[in-house]
Amino acid sequence: MALLSVLTPVLAVILCLVLGFMLVKSRETPSTTVEKPAGASKADFRPWVDQDLQDDTDTTARQDEDDGDWVDGNEEEEELPHVPYSPTRYPEEAMLQRSQEFYTVLNQRRSVRFISPEPVPREVIDNVIRTAGTAPSGAHTEPWTFVVVSDPKMKHQIRLVVEEEEEVNYRQRMGDKWVNDLAPLRTNWIKEYLDVAPYLLLIFKQTYGMLPNGKKRTHYYNEISVSISCGILLAALQNVGLVTVTSTPLNCGPQLRLLLKRPANEKLLMLLPVGYPAADATVPDLKRKPLDDIIAHI
Ligand code: IYR
């Protein structure tokens, strides 16, 4: 009996430890594998959703990342003047012509995997990024970082990381269906353009902001905001005759973030090799859906 009363607290402690361990394990996100979540059916398993891109919304995950308090709403509020706004208004005819011309330019945009090593002026890239930075963002938090890599050694390091992970993606993680769906595009894990393109643009979404006083600021809708900005960036590249391919290297985010010495609040959303198209570049002969298939007038 005496033995039992001594053992009970010990057993309780052991039980707590086991439960705590199980809880911690269940919260861990795999960083190098895309695993089918327990209980997920074939239909709801989405291997193309990069685990690293998920926002850390629960407070424990936030605290794990690094120290620092969050600003609360009132602290941040500042009086912001509203000023008159009257952008150019075009006559209808001009609108029609401009809409057609803009469509013609953007309709020529293609994802190009064969990029020329020919140098591109830095100022053009700066302006393209300036343009991307005009995107709207949740509560005007501008939650983006554009990392421009031109150093050949760093480009090669990036290539090594991407090719190693992508080989596992194509061979194991993506599955037969996805690999078959991509077959017509003739894409695989070998990404020569990562060495060859004069610039690699790595676009990071900031899952939260860091204020000068060390406090964290909520970045609402950060992924949507950065995605819009990427769309504008693609249009700006097209406007100057440069090409890219929207690569989204699955599972490479954490390694590339460390390689580029980016802070913990930044997560890689997209990697764009940028340059002129190679003289012998080819693209798949894709057709776009007709207007009637993408529009619903109500
Ligand atoms: N991220 C891989 C696979 C890939 C996925 C889609 I969806 C594409 O349209 C093309 C490629 C890669 O970049 O090769």
How does this structure look, described?
This protein is mainly α and 298 residues long. It has a domain at 117-276: 3-Layer(aba) Sandwich (NADH Oxidase). The chain is built from eleven helices and five strands. It has helices spanning 2-27, 59-65, 73-76, 92-107, 122-132, 152-173, 175-182, 193-196, 222-239, 253-259, 291-294, and strands at residues 144-149, 199-206, 208-210, 216-218, 266-274. A three-stranded antiparallel β-sheet has the order 1-2-5, with helices on both faces. A two-stranded antiparallel sheet has the order 3-4. Strand 3 (208-210) and strand 4 form a beta hairpin. The chain starts with a helix and ends with a helix. The model is unreliable at 27-33 and 58-64 (pLDDT under 50). Bound molecules: 3-iodo-tyrosine (IYR). 3-iodo-tyrosine (IYR) is lined by residues 166, 182, 185, 187, 247-250. 3-iodo-tyrosine binds next to loops.
